Amino acid sequence: MTAKSISAKSLCAARAAHLLAVAVGLGLAFCAGAFGAEPNATAEETRLALLLDEEVRLAEQLAKAFPQSEEPLVILSRVYVRRGDTDKAIEYWEKAVQMNPRRVDVYDQMAKVAVQMDEYEKAIELWSRVLQVDPNWQGTRNQMADAYMNLGQYERAIETLREEIERSGGDAESHFRLGQVCQHQQKYEEAKAHYERAVGLQSDHRDACYGLYMVCARLRLTEEAKRYLTRFQELKEEDKDALKRYDETLPSDLDCAYQSLAKLCFDTHMLHVYTGQTPVTADVLRAVGALGSDSPVYLKRLAELYASIQRVPEALTLYRRVAQLDPNDRQGQLNVGLLSVQMGLLGDAQKAFQRLIALDPNEYVGYQELARLYLRAKMNLPEARRLAQKAVDLEGSASAYYDLGLACYANGDATGGLAALKRAAELEPENSTYIDAYQLFQKRSRAQ
After folding, report:
1. Same domain for 226 and 369?
2. Whose CA, among 14, 307, 352, 405, lies 20 to 30 Å from 368?
3. Whole-model pTM?
4. What 3-state DSSP class applies to 30?
5. Is residue 373 included in any domain, yes or no?
């Protein structure tokens, strides 16, 4: 989405106010429990149904508020895909590309849906439109080749893949697919060469290893075939373990619904930002939050939006909640610390940065932020220097040297401070803050 894709002239304050009124009404709609759920549904199923229905309603309101932009139509399509209504999604995608024929991401999504429906010719047509607008759209030719193979048009698949390799140098997937086509055509030497190229580019390409096992067997290369079969079996076991770990961490349907709603509200926020309207997304999320989601992803997104419109107390409250739900979330601890500094809650900031250091002693950020806190507050100055030095040892960035320079001066070490500031200026010679600080302290050193 770009600013050009939205016509600011089509908007007015009344529409923004209307969206806000709709948002405030969300909590009442949820409490009413008026729609979407089955009669014998569980409480979680009822809540999920209400969330999905409300997501549609909010997306439709967004489309009405921005009639000259295709973006709300794209958002609506995404919502309907989540609901499993691909016909409705396609309807809005088609409207979106009528408004903006250069939306390659929309053509790409429509093509992927066409493949799911075994409409390969339609998918090829849609991906052709993608390439007309953006000849370098990632993965398009590989997917077109898959569609050609499903249609039995192997020569077209080869032509498409070779074009991809010629344009981009070829990735593992392009060579793997060429290996598949050559294998199907019983060109085993060529298939072997492409499979080997795929494995060379991606050593853990399981399917390419299996392809090599098959063609080596055909070519009576027994030892190579055994080696690739063993490698394939190893990768298959690794994938099983990875899939098991993924399944264990997979969010619930309800969490997914909250996350999707958070993304919708973020998109709403960005539309208002691009068009200079008063952002209302935080209010939308607060109203929806009446359901009481404890999804960390959802709460983080809400906190980000509050922070973006300078509503720091609300953002801090939410980040604290995230930190409670997941005490090992390093980003959450960092955000609690930074926002606490903004609020002047130095004790809270100190605890958050100390917690961040404890979570990952080999990450420099916690040391750097705690050193900065002590320097700003003019407290624990020897500790500030130790922390700044630790950040330099771990990271060695210009900002770390700059902080060390200030810490040295705060502790009366002009020589060490000047050396650190000089190093910061050397690392980022275009940074006027570092250059000015170095030159200032250099003058002071010469004057003494």
Report:
1. no
2. 307
3. 0.61
4. helix
5. yes
